[in-house]
Amino acid sequence: MTTLASSFDSSALASFRALVLRRGRELYRDLPWRRTRDPYEIWLSEVMLQQTQVTRVDGRWQHWLERFPTIDALASAQTADVLDEWQGMGYNRRALALLNAARIVADGGGDMPVEACDLEALPGIGPATAAGIRAFAYDLPGVYLETNVRTVLLHELYPGAVQVPDRELVPLVEATCPKDAGDPTDDPRTWYYALLDYGAFLKRTVPNPSRRSRAHVRQSRFEGSHRQKRAMVVRALLAHRETGGVDAATIANEMSELEAAAGRPPVGEQQVLDLLEELSGEGFCRSEDGCWSA
To answer: What is the pLDDT of residues 54-83, one digit of tens each?
Structure first.
């Protein structure tokens, strides 16, 4: 089967690589997580940067590391402390996955895996995150396909094409990534930084090319959503930590006040109980005699 990717010869890919490296040097962002090779610190940055703006992560990343400076420190932390530190970052599941993965790594001796298959076996680490850890911590090649990388590929190699599937892009990512770190100006780490920085620039200056990817999904509305209510319940649990827990009726009353202020209907106790049971099944909270705690 002929694909668009197969139409690019070695000369075209070489020209593409030269362009990206040049733009990467011009647009390089000196971000704090780029000043480390520590795989835990890089893993944290990769998770935080998922669906979150760089400006929001810068500062939160440093504060997290002050509180949980190592994998062992994170692994020994209480779930409530980890969720508390994560508040404001969105998608609490990411924090819980970090905690669970840290505990697995700590139980195995405390060293982050190097091989992609071992990284992907950890909670919350998919192929792109694993490739990012390998590239930025260990300078190893891999298919690091995330939104900024898609943006560059679509802008430069697929102008005008729509609904481009990732299976078209993966061979190009693999073919253009340097296979070793022999050249310090063109190694996997430098290459992916260049793609990320050029992609971020394109998003600010042209209509977002990643929307032409089949993988592009418009984010659903957060306000008033089930996801927002889950987040509200987690915040309520954390707010009542010092009192040893809270019952569903109290959470319902507190949430209803917030919903009323936003012009939305009140939240019933049964709805809160359903949310608590859902969160409990995922490891966010627990119940004892009708008293819930994170």
So the answer is: 999 999 999 999 999 999 999 999 999 999
Does residue 218 lie within any of the structural domains? no
161 and 26 co-located in one domain: yes
Q: Dihedral angle at the C-alpha atoms of 81, 83, 87, 91, nearest 10 degrees?
A: 170
DSSP notation for 37-86: --HHHHHHHHHHTTTS-HHHHHHHHHHHHHHS-SHHHHHTS-HHHHHHHH
Say yes or no: 269 and 199 in one domain.
no
Burial status of residue 17 (CB atoms within 10 A of its CB: 0-12, 13-18, 19 or more): middle
Which residues are annotated as catalytic? 46
Domain span including residue 208: 5-30+141-212
Which residues of the chain are under the pLDDT cut of 70?
Answer: 1-7, 216-220
- Secondary-structure breakdown of the chain: helix, strand, coil percentages, each rounded to the nearest 5: 60, 5, 35
